[in-house]
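Assemble and predict.
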Amino acid sequence: MKKLAVAIALMLSAIVANAADRATTPEITPPANGEEFLRLSSTEKLFWSIGYSQGYLDALNKIDVAAGANSACASLAARTERQSSTAGKMSGFELVSGLEKFYADPANTLIPVGSAIRIYMLQAAGKDQTTIQELIETARALGAESSHRPMASK
Amino acid sequence: MDLRSAAFCIIPLLFAVPARVERPLPRRIPAIVPGIVLTTLHDANAASDSRRFDGALAVAKLVAEVMPIGPQRNEFRRSILIYEDIGTVLGYAMRDRSGAYFNDDSLPGMYDRLSADYPGYDDYIAEFRVADAKGNVLYPTAETRKFLESRLTSK
């Protein structure tokens, strides 16, 4: 009987701990585009942005390569880094703010979040406006197309 | 036209121009105008369009000046006061690099003032506040705007 009481008490405390965890950690459905991103609360946007960025970083770090010094690979690596990186580091707060501003333009709402992040990072890095505008136009077309496309069957 | 008659034409205009700049609206405005201005403010805030919002807020203040004294004007002025706070938060959210969140460093005194002026703000925003890596507490601008907007409908 004593063992049963202990087991019930343990089970109840586990349920309470689980419920407390769920209360502090929001369940986030990954947003596909601006429409879905803007529907999230600020906490969800922040948690999602940090999780997405961390996952992206981890995935890139799995590519185990090293360009040889003074090789054609090294110059290509330097060019790619210049083209895709920001002027400085970006915090999760800045990423959320940047996406909110980007999606404040109603014409951008269908742009996939991945494209929006890349465009915002290039904007923050001071990339020329013509290139940014071209990227935005392309992303808008792709976003509009993907929103009309039926969901792929699994 | 001789000089004297030209002076008679121009001098009244010189006095009239500054008066027209200070009071661009007539003394009496149609009753529908305050409603239109409030709708514009609401829509600009919903679209996060701070430039349109600032313009509409400036017009709203002029409209309040020419409205006849009474409960309708009091209600309109109350809405303007709330929209002024929304405007401060919206302007910061759209202009600052980290505009999604604010604290006492980025918007000095804002949190204390909102807590003092709007009962319930403190409890409402507690659910959404976060802390950065250094332990600084930050409050979201989007939920703050949502809360202030809900104050417009409640009395």
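Residues 144 and 150 of chain B are 10 Å apart (CA to CA).
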